[in-house]
Design brief:
The protein has 387 residues and is mainly beta. The chain is 12% helix and 32% strand. α1 packs antiparallel against α2.
Length: 387
């Protein structure tokens, strides 16, 4: 930083105006990145270096980045939801097998929460990512294979499903994800929360699979971000965090790895809680949203993004729907409507969104009973999808 300043002063005195303006812009950008990092990375009580090279800071729960949001200045921290984990019970052996989520060897102290540290390189790479546009329909290079439970049977207050985890091959500038979501409102002012797993080199600087969540109150025009890259999500769990690297992933033919994921509204506070396995890791406060007192639609499936005109990456396992040990899928799918009771959506209650059947497939089975309950298969190899 000091060297850059000295260089700028020298060039100013020598009258090299065009170069000076360029370097001044670089200097301003560097200062802005430092300002953003200071806001995101709070002073840690403890720092954890994981075996995979990630740095996780344990931050005072009351000083986490969420409370920098102007709408949350007077927000009262909710330490746990006012309801039990909304997972439906189903008999029989689960097809989806093993889970990669357990407690890591290191935990944060009581009263602190784990937050994945953001680096300057993260922010520089992320500038190339088109502001979460993967969640906006009708954008060139973005493709989807999803179902939604129709608004005819809403409103909705929870979606919960078992999410099979893969590691689809992407290249620089691409993303591939599997997620559940809740939303409400007209498309231009859509309020939405999404969570699941994705592969995104621009966000993490690697090609591994990461667990993630994201939000918006205006269809990603000015609000929202992935994980904690902007204030919003309130972390409460001391062991699990957004952006966690998932090292156990499924393979064609097995073994299969999964985690249960849920997005559920607290009936008392109206906050939206994000659940993983048997734990709630935190919530999106009701104050963030302009129109999410309930969801008019809930859904799940996969999405990919790539540069316009370039081949699309694989989605899910990279194979079209078919065999459960070959295709990517969700099982044990449950939603809650105004009754606040879990139920599996019937086929006639769902809407299907598949924009590129040449590249990806989508099949909702309804209730398959003992082994998998309500199940959805989706995904495919990608390729030249005709953008």
């Amino acid at each position: 930083m000091i060297n850059t300043l000295i260089l700028v002063l020298c060039l100013v005195s020598s009258g090299v105006s065009p170069i000076v303006y360029g370097i001044e812009n670089i200097f301003k950008e560097d200062l802005e990145l430092d300002r953003q990092l200071k806001l995101i990375n709070k002073p840690p009580v403890k720092t954890i270096h994981t075996e995979h090279g990630d740095i996780v800071d344990c931050i005072d729960i009351n000083k986490q980045p969420a409370f920098d949001h102007p709408l949350l200045k007077n927000h009262k921290l909710q330490e746990k939801p006012n309801f039990q984990r909304p997972i439906g019970k189903i008999s029989g052996k689960k097809l989806s097998g093993r889970s990669m989520f357990g407690f890591d060897k290191h935990h944060c102290y009581k009263g602190t929460v784990p937050i994945l540290r953001t680096t300057k390189e993260n922010l520089i790479r992320e500038k190339k990512l088109l502001n979460s546009s993967i969640f906006v329909k009708d954008i060139s290079g973005v493709h989807l294979a999803e179902i939604a439970v129709s608004s005819k049977f809403g409103p909705y207050f929870s979606i919960d499903a078992n999410n099979i985890v893969y590691n689809p091959t992407v290249t620089k500038g691409q993303m591939s994800l599997s997620h559940i979501w809740v939303q409400n409102g007209p498309i231009n002012t859509n309020n939405k929360i999404s969570m699941g797993w994705h592969v995104s080199p621009e966000l993490y600087g690697d090609y591994d699979t990461h667990e993630y969540a994201t939000w918006t109150s205006d269809n990603y025009h000015r609000t929202g971000c992935f994980n904690l890259r902007c204030p919003g999500f309130v972390q409460t769990h001391s062991g699990l965090h957004l952006g966690k690297r998932l090292t156990n992933v499924s393979f064609y033919g097995g073994p299969l790895y999964s985690f249960r994921s849920s997005i559920s509204q607290d009936p008392s506070t109206k906050n939206w809680w994000v659940g993983i396995q048997d734990f709630y890791i935190g919530y999106y406060p009701a104050e963030l949203f302009s129109n999410l007192g309930s969801a008019d639609k809930v859904g799940l499936g996969g999405r990919t993004s790539t540069a316009p005109g370039s081949p699309s990456p694989p989605m899910g396992s990279g194979h079209f729907p078919g065999n459960f040990f070959h295709s990517s899928f969700f099982d044990l799918i449950f939603v809650q409507n105004a009754s606040r009771r879990n139920y599996g959506p019937e086929k006639y209650q769902t809407e299907h969104y598949l924009d590129k059947p040449k590249c990806y497939g989508l099949k909702y089975f309804g209730n398959l009973h003992q082994n998998v309950g309500c199940a959805l298969q989706f995904g495919g190899p990608g390729g030249n999808c005709g953008d």
